[in-house]
Model the fold of this input.
Amino acid sequence: KAQKGGVCTRHGAKAKQAKKCSHPECTNNVKAGGVCFRHGAIRKKCSHEGCTNVCLSGGVCHRHGAKIKKCCHEGCGNISVKGGVCQRHGAKTKRCTYEGCTNLSRNDGVCKRHGAKSKKCNHTGCTRVSQRGGVCTRHGATRKKCSHEGCTNWSMKGGVCVQHGAKVKVCSFNGCTGNSQKGGVCRRHGAKPNNCTYEGCTNLSKCSGGVCLRHSAKAKKNI
Done:
């Protein structure tokens, strides 16, 4: 869209600075009522009967017909990120400023591995990562289930689980069909697994919140 002087931001028009949330010390952009989603702005829900997904356009979610811009590169079905193209076809995204790192920048110019701070659950005393609405899954953040009839698995991509068609990245090691974990490879070919964040525990982290099965069960008992 033309902004000023008949040109778009890409071709010289200066973009307006977004207003910041009025909540003390919050740097998020205003979404509604002078606040961000974390501090009370209400997200519109999909108007389709019984659907609780967030409305994207036309009053509906992606699953129920909301149109999203696709990459304009011929034959590509990825979502457009910037300039009408996806990351694969030239959309520029900010990278971590740590020397030699190619991860995406999260905040403060660095990735999570090199110091970007994740938002914590705002429930008193909880140190887990915030998922939705400012809280973790343990304190009310809802996770989507697979849309396949009768399936109770978590939705991974396209509204379905891996078992029902969600595509997952495969290890880049020649001939390997294992799931990619970190750095484009599986654990067998070099991806380092995350350990439980519970003090003194060396078990693998398997549950949300960075803990193992043993300490996830303990946490649930203490709620």
User: Anything to note?
Assistant: The chain has one helix and no strands. Helices lie at 213-221. The CA atoms of residues 157 and 190 lie 25 Å apart.
